[in-house]
Design goal:
Blueprint lengths: L17 H19 L8 H19 L3 H9 L8 H8 L11 H31 L5 H15 L21 H34 L15 H13 L5 H25 L6 H10 L8 H18 L12 E5 L11 E4 L9 E5 L12 H8 L6
Parallel strand pairs: 1-3
Antiparallel strand pairs: 2-3
Helix pairs in contact: 1-2, 3-5, 3-8, 5-7, 6-7, 11-12
Length: 380
């Protein structure tokens, strides 16, 4: 659907299932075999890069399906940053990736929503299996997820993100169909979606939280150290150990502090490095006054970037970019910024989500870097 392919738009799929895991493995193996059947020597230099990157990604993905690593991955199916509760409500809200142009689109969404609700039983089963093996999430993460589900539950029916598509219809959908869809969506939210959210929330609070770990790092649970090593290789593509990554981090901190000292002299700030950092965090000039101030700041950055991006990039996507504030149900646990891709044909825009939660923790001097990374030229 994100790519504009609606052939399977009525299906949510079966994530968090053994069948889905096996299918993903087969598909990756088939893709790698098809890739290796292509004579690399006959490719252009540019295509060889694509060949190597695609192949390396597939090989690393398949390594992650080793039994020991899968044991850890299966045991922690969702968290407060990644999981169906973090992306799907917005996806199905009428403002996300799901289309709502025809009656069929609305009916397809109802079917997908049913699959979404059913997935929570599989998630709970995997959490139970993990808890039995001592492979559990940190308590902090679990508390954040409980709050996410509380936020979804307190929306009620007509205030629900899942009911939002029927609060406004496109032209061409008859009053009869509108009334039918409103009734169907209200029933689904009250009888299917909300019960699934409550079941997940209550499971986390009553069963899982008491068993969650106090430690934060992956090494605090069985198999965690090996899984961390895998994630290092997956993220860096380099044969580095955790100790080497840490040492590199310390080196980078020292380098950045040196650059900050130079910047401090450039702007004429008199004081210690700590006083300079305190100045950046506490000076009212660097703090947005309200949500609208955050939006105005990003709009201004977008205009400046758009005016000059072609100086650095020959190809600029035709797909438009839209700026949106992070939805309320996940604003507390969301990242400062994130990106959802649009369709290649431009029929659905890419979206840069920015957070305005806890304004005292937001700073205007961090906004430009975040926009460049998440939006243009970054992910968009």
């Amino acid at each position: 659907i994100y790519r504009g392919d609606l052939r399977y738009a009525d299906r949510f799929g079966d994530p968090y299932s053994d069948a889905a895991d096996a299918r993903d493995r087969r598909n990756a193996q088939a893709d790698l075999a098809a890739l290796r059947a292509i004579p690399r020597a006959r490719l252009t230099p540019v295509d060889r890069i694509a060949y190597d990157v695609f192949g390396d990604g597939l090989e690393r993905y398949l390594k992650g399906l080793a039994p020991g690593l899968m044991k850890v991955r299966r045991a922690m199916p969702i968290n407060h940053f990644g999981g169906i509760q973090t992306f799907y409500p917005d996806f199905a809200s009428g403002k996300g990736g799901a289309p709502f142009k025809t009656v069929l689109d609305y009916e397809n969404n109802l079917k997908r929503n049913a699959g979404y609700a059913a997935a929570y039983d599989r998630i709970i089963a995997r959490f139970r299996d993990g808890a039995a093996q001592g492979i559990v999430l940190p308590k902090l993460t679990v508390r954040n997820m409980i709050e996410q589900f509380d936020n979804l539950l307190k929306e009620g029916v007509e205030g629900s993100t899942f009911y939002a598509p029927v609060t406004k219809f496109p032209a061409g959908i008859s009053p009869t169909d509108q009334a039918r869809m409103k009734a169907a969506y209200a029933t689904q939210v009250s009888d299917v979606i909300q019960p699934a959210h409550r079941k997940m929330r209550d499971f986390l609070a009553s069963f899982y939280l008491p068993r969650a770990r106090e430690t934060m790092g992956l090494s605090g649970m069985p198999g965690g150290a090996a899984y961390y090593d895998y994630r290092i290789a997956q993220s860096t593509t380099l044969p580095m150990t955790a100790a080497q990554v840490h040492a590199l981090g310390l080196t980078e901190v020292a380098r950045i502090l040196g650059e900050m000292a130079t910047l401090q002299d450039t702007v004429g700030f008199k004081g210690t490095p700590k006083q300079f950092f305190d100045h950046l965090r506490t000076d009212p000039r660097f703090q947005p006054k309200d949500d609208a101030d955050v939006r105005t700041g990003y709009d201004a950055i977008a205009k400046r970037v758009d005016a000059r991006v072609r100086e650095q990039f020959a190809l600029v996507p035709k797909t438009p970019l839209e700026l949106r504030q992070v939805p309320a149900f996940r604003e507390k646990t969301a990242a400062s910024g994130s990106y959802n891709a649009g369709t290649p044909d431009g029929s659905r825009p890419g979206v840069f989500y920015y957070s305005a939660y806890d304004l005292p923790s937001r700073y205007t001097w961090s906004m430009e870097t975040l926009y460049l990374h998440e939006a243009v030229p970054g992910h968009h």
